[in-house]
Structures are given as C-alpha cells and as structure tokens.
Amino acid sequence: MSKKVQIAPSILSANFADLKSDIRKVEEGGAALLHVDVMDGHFVPNLTIGPPVVRCLSRETSLPLDVHLMIEDAARYIEEFLQAGAGWVSVHWEGMVHLHRTVQSIKDGGALAGVAINPATPVSVLEEILPEVDFVLLMSVNPGFGGQKFIDSSYEKIRKLKRMIEGGGWDARIEVDGGIGPDNVRQVVECGAEVIVAGSSIFHAPDIQRAVAEMIRAVEAQKVRA
Q1: Domains and CATH numbers, the chain
Q2: Across the chain, what does the average pLDDT equal?
Q3: What is the pLDDT of residues 57-66, one digit of tens each?
Q4: C-alpha dihedral sign at 120, 123, 126, 131
Q5: Which of 5, 28, 40, 86 is the most buried (most CB within 10 A)?
Q6: What pTM was estimated for this model as a whole?
Q7: How far apart are CA 99 and CA 132, in angstroms?
C-alpha cells in the first residue's frame, strides 16, 4: 500500500435518505476510501447496517469499502462481507477468540486485514499480530456513535504504535477513527496516522465536497512542514 495519507469518510454520519448523493460528494472531494461502520447492538450500543447495504454501496462507488466490524462473533460473517464487496475489513481485538485465524481468512478472501482496538486497550496487545495485518484501526472515541470528542490520550497512543511498527520493520498502516476534523487532523497525522476516518466533520459540514478537500489540504500542509 502507498504511504500517502488517505481520508476515509464514515457513512455513519451521512444522510441515509440520500446516501448516493453524499457518496458522490466525498468522491469529488478526493476521498480515498469509504468507511463503513457495522454495529450489532451487542458489541457496541448501536445498530447500523449489514452485508446487503455493503453490496449496494459496492455497486455505487469505485472507492474501496473500509468495513469496520463492531460486532460479536465477527469471524462468522467475514465471508459475507467479502462477497458483498468489502476491500478492507477490520475486526476488534477485544471481541476475537481466534484473531490470527480471522486475519488470515480476510487476507485469503482478497481484502486488506486490520485489527481495531478501543481507547482503553493498550497497543501492546497487538505485538503478536502486527506482522500479519495490513492496518491497525485505533479508536480515538468510544465506539458506537458519531460526533464524539477526540480523546486526547490517543495522540501518544498513535506515537507508541508507530514506534512499534517501525521497530519491528512491519508495513501495517495506522488508521484513526473518532473526533477528527480540520482542527486536529494535522496533529493526528504528525503522530503517525496514515488513514483518517472522519464522519460528522465531513457529512455534517455545509459543503461535503469542500470538507473532504479541506481535510486533504490540511494533511498536505502537514507533510510540507515535515
């Protein structure tokens, strides 16, 4: 994977009554991925979407679908999401019994495999799985709902994970999700994030296309300073 920082708008905050239009706007703004939060009301306190919606999304966009499984027994549904068109799939460390097997099944299915961890979970738990994954998704809010405030301790957590990856010589990218907008995206990238998930700061903006473009410009400005 390219190491260029990517913006992944989260459709959790989109207008589901006009989702096709919102997707077109983020495409035109320069989004690299479309982030899809799948919640079951058990692992997290919210219900969202399943494979049928992912399948419809895959027909409406050329953007890779970054499917974040916040569900119990996620391994049971991997094949369904892969068949529906998921290009990236992340499962939670906190909810997996056989994490290595699940990561391999995602990769065997032709998708990029990721492991997600909640804000209170230390990055040290990833040491054994880091050589196997394509990306790590760090939650910078407690998962379940959009529009939450970024947890400030996440900055150091991103730095720690970056040091672990570089120290091991691995290729896993760092994705960060929760409370990120134009005001803090530069700092998140400076800490080591390479994929930025943004929901309400994009889809609740007056101009969705412009909001994506502004996030990209903020990231590019950070790279110039670096």
Answers
A1: 6-225 (3.20.20.70)
A2: 93
A3: 999 999 999 9
A4: positive
A5: 86
A6: 0.94
A7: 10
